[in-house]
Amino acid sequence: MSARPQGLEINDKIRRPLRTPQHKFSFHILSECDMRPSLEPKVASVAENDIVGKGPIIQEDPAMTEGGAVWRKLDYHILPLMAMYFFLSFLDRTNVGNARVAGLQKDLGMSNKQYSIALTVTYVPYIVFQLPSNLILKAVGPNLLLPTMLTLWGVVTVLQGVVKSYSRFLACRFFLGLLEGGLFPGLVLYLSYFYPRYMMNTRVTAFFSSASLSGAFSGILAYGIINMDGVGNRPGWSWIFILEGLFTFLFGVFSFFLFPRSVDNSRFLSPAEKEYIKEKLLEDCDHKEEEGFSWSEVVEALRLPQLWFMSIAFFLSATTLFGLAYFSPSIIQGLGYTAADTQLMSVPPYAVACVVALIASFVSDRYRCRGIVCVVSVLLCAIGFAIFLGSESNQIQYGSLFFSVTGACMAAPTQATWNANNASPQTRRATVIAVGFVFSNGGGILATWLLGGSLSLAPRYTEATITLLVFSLLAALMCGLNMFYLRMQNGKKAERRKTMSREDEKPGIGNHSSWYIYNL
Fold first, then answer.
1. Which of 171, 241, 308, 342 pairs as cysteine with 333 (C-beta 3.0–4.6 A)?
2. Is the pTM for the entire model greater than 0.85?
């Protein structure tokens, strides 16, 4: 028998955590997914004086046993790298908002319409490349594709700081979108190679929260960098692109040596730890073999109703997320702040959003309640927009951003995780993730025109705010419908399990298996 991580006992039938010095076991509610007959039965983890078999079926909480050390080791090696990637992605894509406040639009002679076109140009290749990029990532490996993307878009970011014409700025935005397009769906897919579904949301939010930090940090950076105005005969806004792009380039080169391709290629894991992780992935109702690419799986992914509920929710929520990311500096400046103060005042809403999003992700994973967290997050956005519309006070309108920014930053990672959780095997999941993000970035395109064009004028942005309020309510409806549909499907699977065994099912059906329980 292969070696196991310390703290796990093995016999012919069961595996259980060793007792702690206090002679108690930690516990966690067992999901329906873990109650299938083909796997080893689990022992209820209870206090020593409790009777095993009484009360709810429970399992060990991985974070509270020695097995949790394996997940912590993964977290320490993978999550900081992913967080930095996403931080730089969001920073390099949205720092144009800070540059605009610092004089970019004026110096390049752009109208509001031309500025919106520049943002839209970013999203066209961004959307087109998302599905191919996830399929390429699966073929060539994340250890090669992701660092290459990061290094090259660092170069493009630097070039944005040296262009002197609108047409060249457009070209830079196009290539930035092309190179960044596959990052978020690629990172979500990459995480699914290492973690069971019920552990995903905390990890996705952990790296996505770096986007909230970038929203806060970019304001601080811009506040300092614009003081370089005139250095090297360049305006302050150009140094925002040059310095931030240079750091991205250097980190991209360095990260070629950091990315493991898969569990088997993770040099920081022992053989026993690798086996433990792979077993947990199989126990999560995932496909047992690493299947090759199949167009039939792509088509099957497109037939999943839950994909379309979530894709619509992605579009609606992302319109809010990207609208705030690109235009919150302009919104804050419209409340009467100077350009320098605007950079600093954009920090607090995103700092709060980062903390709240992490707490929400913990709740989502701990209680496996993706849908409820999604609904609450978009309703927070709606509350923020309603306050902004209903008040004439600059202070209250600024305070409303804490609701809307927090809701937007909560919604995105939880929706992404929920979408990925309910599709299997890997090619089907890769397709579902990519399609969801295509819709998400469609929302990004709409946001650039909703707040940047002539449809809704500063400083009130009344029409845009009403639209985002309605979108938030519709996103809550889509998430609710998805919960209802998945609950109904789980009920049908439960009925099928009463009349059949797992051996009766044909292999390779992924999430259609009666033993694959959808996350709600």
1. 342
2. no
